[in-house]
Write a structure and sequence with these properties.
Blueprint: H1 16-43, H2 48-57, E1 66-67, E2 70-71, H3 75-88, H4 90-110, H5 113-125, E3 130-133, E4 149-153, E5 156-167, E6 174-181, E7 184-191, E8 197-201, E9 213-223, E10 228-233, H6 236-270, E11 272-273, E12 276-277, H7 282-310, H8 316-341, H9 352-362, H10 369-381
Parallel strand pairs: 3-6
Antiparallel strand pairs: 1-2, 4-5, 5-9, 6-7, 7-10, 8-9, 11-12
Helix pairs in contact: 1-3, 3-4, 3-6, 4-5, 4-6, 6-7, 6-8, 6-9, 7-8, 8-9, 8-10
Length: 387
């Protein structure tokens, strides 16, 4: 009999190496993160720098990148690690994803050799924490409208502006900051001890509580010319990085869904009402069956997209399809699992409500559901609905 969370035997599609990497990530997540995550979410305080160091020691940070201390694993293996981290909490997967697929990827793909040597080995080890400064207080879905501006001043750049909802931002050592210039949008590698840089943690969140979320401000922040990412011009740079991170979300959300499904199955087979387990009732079995099929198909979609990426033929619209589908599926599974647990579904003793709250954010960040719908619509029709 297959494990309850793998009704469709998706595990059969994985290589021995991929399963080994998955199992390593699962052991790390279960041993190092799971015992503490409920407290981190309850208090809204995350020891992000300590966790980054642990993830680096486990070889997880930037694991899909080549060289500079990175493991260089394949896309599907990276996705499987994302599943195991998000099975614990979406906020922990976000720390991993922002470090590796946004900050490190940007430097790896667009940076100078000097920038790569300076930052990537330390980031892979978890000695340096990275962040990605794109979203602004008034511009999320339309990054082309960003107001942060970098102006030339001799050989230097002077940056003014603000970024919002930046994971890791207030604890980071380095932030990849995107800004408007006279030559369009450009990226800059910004050490956070640069004068004029400030970061403030955002408090009172109802979602992603086991995550550091920040507002960044830049006031006459002076950077040397060497801070510019030479390989990124226009929106191609930040959107390329976002596509990497969205790929991880496609997989990761199935981890949150799996956790909710496993919790619901365990509860349904042990909770007794009317003198029998609630899992013996037809309505409960119907919910569990639908949840299992939805989770399995989302996982199959993830692996399929992983194979397309390995073949070098994965399209952005296909990543959008994966994120749109899998975030919706995971959120619906979390909500349904909550109904099976009844009043216990809102208790911090169980992970279900925490996952549901987190997934409300995952549905929105790195492209809202509506933006991904329009991306798919453009692919289908050849017509852009974007302004």
């Amino acid at each position: 009999m297959n494990a309850p969370h793998d009704l469709l035997d998706v595990d059969h599609l994985l290589s021995d190496e991929e399963r080994a990497i998955r199992d390593t990530a699962r052991r790390f997540a279960q041993d190092q993160l799971a015992p503490h995550v409920a407290e981190w979410a309850e208090t809204g305080e995350l020891p992000a720098r300590e966790i980054a160091k642990q993830m680096g020691g486990a070889g997880l940070l930037g694991m899909h990148l080549e060289g500079y201390g990175c493991a260089g694993v394949g896309p599907t293996a990276y996705g499987l690690a994302s599943i195991e981290l998000e099975a614990i909490d979406s906020g922990l997967r976000s720390l991993f994803s922002v470090q590796g697929s946004l900050a490190m990827y940007s430097i790896h793909a667009y940076g100078s050799e000097e920038q790569k040597q300076q930052w990537l080995p330390g980031m892979a080890a978890g000695d340096y924490v990275g962040a990605f400064g794109l979203t602004e207080p008034d511009h999320g879905s339309n990054p082309n409208g960003m107001r942060t501006r970098a102006k030339r001043d001799g050989d230097d750049w002077v940056v003014n502006g603000a970024k919002m909802w930046i994971t890791n931002g207030s604890v980071a050592d380095v932030v990849v900051v995107w800004a408007q210039t006279d030559d369009g949008i450009r990226g800059f590698v910004v050490p956070t001890d640069t004068p004029g840089f400030s970061g403030r943690a955002i408090k009172h969140k109802m979602s992603m509580r086991a995550s550091v979320t920040s507002e960044l401000t830049f006031e006459d922040m002076r950077l040397p010319g060497s801070a510019l990412l030479p390989g990124a011009e226009g929106l191609r740079g930040p959107l390329g990085a976002l596509n990497e991170a969205r790929f991880g979300i496609v997989f990761g959300t199935t981890g949150a869904a799996r956790s909710c499904l496993e919790t619901a199955i365990d509860y349904a087979t042990t909770r007794t009402q009317f003198d029998k387990p609630i899992g013996a009732f037809q309505l409960t079995q119907g919910k569990l069956a639908d949840m299992s099929v939805a989770h399995g198909t989302a996982l199959l979609l993830s692996v399929h997209l992983g194979r397309l990426k390995e073949a070098g033929i994965l399209k952005p619209a296909q990543v959008s399809a994966g994120k749109l589908n899998n975030t919706r599926v995971a959120l619906e599974i979390a909500r349904t699992a909550r109904t099976i647990l009844g009043a216990n579904g809102i208790s911090g003793e169980y992970s279900v409500m925490r996952h549901a709250n987190n997934l409300e954010s995952v549905l929105t960040y790195e492209g809202t559901a509506e933006i991904h719908q329009l991306t798919i619509g453009r692919e289908l029709t050849g017509l852009s609905a974007f302004a």
